[in-house]
Amino acid sequence: MILTVTPNPSLDRTYEVPSLDRGEVVRATGERVDPGGKGVNVSRAVTAAGRRTVAVLPLGGAPGALVADLLDAQGIEAAPVPVAGATRSNIALAEADGVLTKINAPGPELSAAEQELLLETVRRQSRGADWIACCGSLPRGLDPSWYAALVARAHAAGVRIALDTSGPALLRALRERPDVVKPNAEELAEAVGRPLATVGDAVKAAEELRELGARAVLASLGADGQLLVDDAGTWFGSALVDAVRSNVGAGDASLAGFLIAGGAGPEALASAVAHGAAAVRLPGSVMPTPADLDPDAVTVTADVPVDRPLKEPAP
């Protein structure tokens, strides 16, 4: 079982538009409403793969009630933590050429009592979990050390932790040695304090995160592929994608694929790449099912192309 923790979930509305013209009326050609937040997306992908998951998340107000209804409709077991503030609503505008514009609301501020209830719910629900995936930004009210405390509690209970966050929350949590962290290229560059221009730059940055405490680093490099750096070595994975429809939640699908396949080694990396590649071919934040995967399109190698320039350099 994979338990997910999303401290700042959302109600996600995705609109498909021909193009985005500032100051003009833009008519959408498609619309989706989904339960959102990185951990929620991981749970959706795990469910789509036919595996058990429990989603722990604070929910409040009318948007929170709708998120709970949407999770239930998708057959996702949830452990909601009631909060006084309303769950945030996010908007994504997906253009026909693959460009995505996202507007993310800040979300509610959690009280001290709500924060502790969230941690206690994670503790209670984690019994029997194979992994806890802690994902996304922290809502207002939570100190950047909150994820570090969660990692420490999980390890004390003998549960493995996957962490997908950024900034001070990531750096502080590294001290507690999370089992795997999953930054994208921009988050990786921010963590080490310098731009990344090549695959080799990303490898060096991932190695630095391991020196700071991460036991493994699964780094998403966008269209360039993904890296896995751990005690056993370094691998580079990529997949051919003929057309990108939406990359909303693609990184979350990748993390789900990685954990479903055991969370270690090149086979798990191949699963992560296959899930991420399948997700970008789907509308909105739809998570791929096994039928959407194309494992034959995935290449994983220990011969990492360190000199290859990144198509999307991280500033």
UniProtKB/TrEMBL annotation:
Domain Carbohydrate kinase PfkB as annotated: residue spans: 16-290
Record-listed E.C. numbers: 2.7.1.56
Annotated signal peptide: none
InterPro entries linked to this entry: 1-PFruKinase, PfkB_dom, Ribokinase-like, Tagatose/fructose_Pkinase
UniProt-listed CDD domains: FruK_PfkB_like (cd01164)
Example of a GO MF term: ATP binding
Gene Ontology BP annotations: carbohydrate catabolic process; small molecule metabolic process
Gene Ontology CC, one term: cytosol
Pfam families per the UniProt record, alphabetical: PfkB (PF00294)
Matches recorded under SUPFAM superfamilies: Ribokinase-like
Domain of life according to the entry: Bacteria
Keyword field: ATP-binding, Kinase, Nucleotide-binding, Transferase
Stated family: Belongs to the carbohydrate kinase PfkB family.
UniProt xrefs under PANTHER family: 1-PHOSPHOFRUCTOKINASE, 1-PHOSPHOFRUCTOKINASE-RELATED
NCBIfam families assigned to the protein according to its UniProt record, in alphabetical order: 1-PFK, pfkB
Protein name: 1-phosphofructokinase
Organism in which the protein naturally occurs: Streptomyces griseicoloratus
Lineage of the species this protein comes from: Bacteria, Bacillati, Actinomycetota, Actinomycetes, Kitasatosporales
Gene designation: pfkB
